[in-house]
Amino acid sequence: MAAAGLRPEAGSPQWAPAERDPAAAARPADGEDAPVRPLCKPRGICSRAYFLVLMVLVHLYLGNVLALLLFVHYSDGGGGPAAPRRAPGPPPAPAPAPLARLEGIKVGHEQKVQLVADRDHLVRTLSLKPLLFEVPGFLREEECRLIVHLAQMKGLQPSQLLPTEEFEEAMGAMQLHPLDLFRLLDRNHDGRLQLGEVLAQTRLGSGRWMTPETVQEMYAAMKADPDGDGVLSLQEFAAMDLRDVRTFMKRHRAESGELVRNSHHTWLYQGEGAHHVMRSIRQRVLRLTRLPAEVVELSEPMQVVRYGEGGHYHAHVDSGPVYPETICSHTKLVTNESVPFETSCRYVTVLFYLNNVTGGGETVFPVADNRTYDETSLVQDGVDLRDTRRHCDKGNLRVTPQQGTAVFWYNYLPDGQGWVGDVDEYSLHGGCVVTRGTKWIANNWINVDPSRARQALYQQEMARLAREGAADAQPEWALDRAYGDARVEL
Amino acid sequence: MAAAGLRPEAGSPQWAPAERDPAAAARPADGEDAPVRPLCKPRGICSRAYFLVLMVLVHLYLGNVLALLLFVHYSDGGGGPAAPRRAPGPPPAPAPAPLARLEGIKVGHEQKVQLVADRDHLVRTLSLKPLLFEVPGFLREEECRLIVHLAQMKGLQPSQLLPTEEFEEAMGAMQLHPLDLFRLLDRNHDGRLQLGEVLAQTRLGSGRWMTPETVQEMYAAMKADPDGDGVLSLQEFAAMDLRDVRTFMKRHRAESGELVRNSHHTWLYQGEGAHHVMRSIRQRVLRLTRLPAEVVELSEPMQVVRYGEGGHYHAHVDSGPVYPETICSHTKLVTNESVPFETSCRYVTVLFYLNNVTGGGETVFPVADNRTYDETSLVQDGVDLRDTRRHCDKGNLRVTPQQGTAVFWYNYLPDGQGWVGDVDEYSLHGGCVVTRGTKWIANNWINVDPSRARQALYQQEMARLAREGAADAQPEWALDRAYGDARVEL
């Protein structure tokens, strides 16, 4: 079990496991955070030398383990969310102006915005936690068709593949002390591992989506839970041979429907010189979010996603937690720091529905506007609210795809000083299974570094490069290589 | 039943029934809206001539009926909350700057503020709906004692008295058609009156707090509900002789514990020349809320409230709904309009705990941060969440009195343009029964007119009067007569 991939928290980013084609594995996917990537050890569980050996195949996996360790570290008092959460600051640059944030007012509130010259759009508040809006008619029908066409011409690739055997072999070489691992998993500190606690760490599944049934099956195969109550004592846990977990996983290759995510996607450039429709959509996003042009222009390209019949994406959040050790993928070029975590820092998600889906395919926000957020209560009485194949009907809010409609939400809370604060756990969302037909969507993410100084430095640097006409005057992804090989360079 | 006092909605302001001393009856009370006061009829149910006859004794009561009529009018499509909600505009004055609004970020978030020279205070977010904060140590212990002392020297009066017999006689002369009344009460339009629908209209009780038991007792005494299921059909309702309701009420005089509110209160001046502690508290409130000085200085004086053992205040909201027909008590002097509703337009409530209570006396917010607000679900399965004598334990959020702590919240949502929008229904709150000892609190309300233009005009006019050194250079209440006889002048 130790070697089977850990995740920091329910609702934290899923990860794309490594695969034979490292370029493909390295691309972040719809609603996925960039894989968490360790550069140094936070707690001495693994040594730096050891790291280097396993690096290429293992970094994604280790990221999961380290992310969990860090999560527990910051949750259990080792600083806590109230502790300073910023990475060591870069040299000062002029502080960017406060980031605009639309007011939700209340669910159902409508406000008019002018996004294009010839008409107004209505922006309707769908929830306050997360701060989520709907904009009918954001795209025209022919624009939706064009985007699908451009994506098909470019070609789509699977959004998630299972780990290779080499990867799992490499994992096998890594061992955490069972007591450490037990402590990490036992979130309620009752000295026992409930099914919900195991399921909450979806990364344990190495990309497979774990259900109460699959975990119980595994326990049975390993004779790990003799009394069959689905709860492991420390003794039962320690008695497990973790190599058996790998053996079990190997024998039970997951079908695509058993993955965290089952879709194909590609990326469409929106920067200068792009198709005029792609440019126009970026301008509309700029007007809609009221964020600075330099922020929007330096953000990721558009991701286009196709879900076939049976396609789904279990619930997740689009951006990673903010620890002092975190840096953002988009600003990392301007930092000389060695920090263990990289995440994609997606302040806002704008999701476009490109077609009407014949059956299913809703976007679900399982805990939207819940009074409280409690990770462990996501999995109760055998019902996992994040499971978009089984339990979409139990989620608080479901948006039915409507061609041309955009929904958008903030993945981060404000920090109270006009900048980005903590990740909003209520932004947990997923794609319900498509029961009939095909579902096409696109995503625009707006990337903002939670470190205001680093975002400033990044913008300054990119502006300088642009003035100097350097090839690097556009962000990495604008050159269409970021999602190629960038992520395997450690 | 027609003649027994209606209220616009659960959580809307309670009212102080008329009494022999009209001056006392006219004072608004802790967390109460100024009594709704009709100046003209909205729907032709009562004529203006009739009005004048009953005016002095009946205006509060009629206010309730009219408020309910208006509420139904605006709820059932006669414009709706999305319709223009402002009273006809006064002549233009320079628009006041946007109103500051603290950011809640998330429950448990803490921000530091400097309210006094010698220390910082922590402002902790208690809920987002309503936007509610707690400030420990806002008042020093000796300041709390001083306020209690000043209030005792001034003398406290009962916050609520029962209607007199004359009042109820006058009520008897008023008749609504039973079909109209039935339609008003039948909120779910199922052609039957559930207990919850009757209880939701707490004004029907004429200041008595209605429980499922008292309503059922009344039905039994009047033989109104032969099948005893607590549900009235239209036939059963129409068959009731409404005079019997009055007879029943007369025979069952309510004890103080059976009132909507059971406390004593008085008002302490905080304007220029007031005790330096009272001035200083106003300055702290100004810094805390970041609202313009002229808004805070022109707001109500401090209300000090004593709850004896057994004291309580059932849940209510502090300000009235915003209809086109609404004017605010504080700005009405600058309007020449004849509009049927007056409410106290309390944008912010700051509540100070002046002592530690031996038993009970918490402030409860029954629906704080609920996912949805549904008036009828406040009363379900015989449990009325607004009942602070019985069901405080079931409320979402309870604040235990702690000497010197202030809590404050916004009674209105923002309008999205930097001004006051709709009343926030989630601000519903009450005082739990004091089971042991005495509870002392104080309230500061900050009054803002939802009509930005009228607030501007009011501020302009008050500034002009101040420059001219007129006696009216201070708001009505600053002269300590607003809460004397102002409210009986029609």
From TrEMBL, chains A, B:
The membrane spanning regions, by residue number, are 49-74
Reaction(s) catalyzed by this protein? L-prolyl-[hypoxia-inducible factor alpha subunit] + 2-oxoglutarate + O2 = trans-4-hydroxy-L-prolyl-[hypoxia-inducible factor alpha subunit] + succinate + CO2
Q: Which domain of life is it from?
A: Eukaryota
Q: Select a single GO molecular function from the record's annotations and give it.
A: procollagen-proline 4-dioxygenase activity
Query: From which residue to which does the signal peptide run?
Result: none
Query: Which stretches of sequence are listed as region Disordered?
Result: 1-34
Q: Which cofactor does it need?
A: L-ascorbate
Q: Where is the Fe2OG dioxygenase domain?
A: 298-448
Q: Which GO terms describe its cellular component?
A: endoplasmic reticulum membrane
How does the record say this protein sits in the membrane? Single-pass type II membrane protein
What EC number(s) would the UniProt record show? 1.14.11.29
> How is the quaternary structure described?
Homodimer.
This molecule's function is given as: Catalyzes the post-translational formation of 4-hydroxyproline in hypoxia-inducible factor (HIF) alpha proteins. Hydroxylates HIF1A at 'Pro-402' and 'Pro-564'. May function as a cellular oxygen sensor and, under normoxic conditions, may target HIF through the hydroxylation for proteasomal degradation via the von Hippel-Lindau ubiquitination complex.
Query: What's the name of the protein?
Result: Transmembrane prolyl 4-hydroxylase
Native organism taxonomy: Eukaryota, Metazoa, Chordata, Craniata, Vertebrata
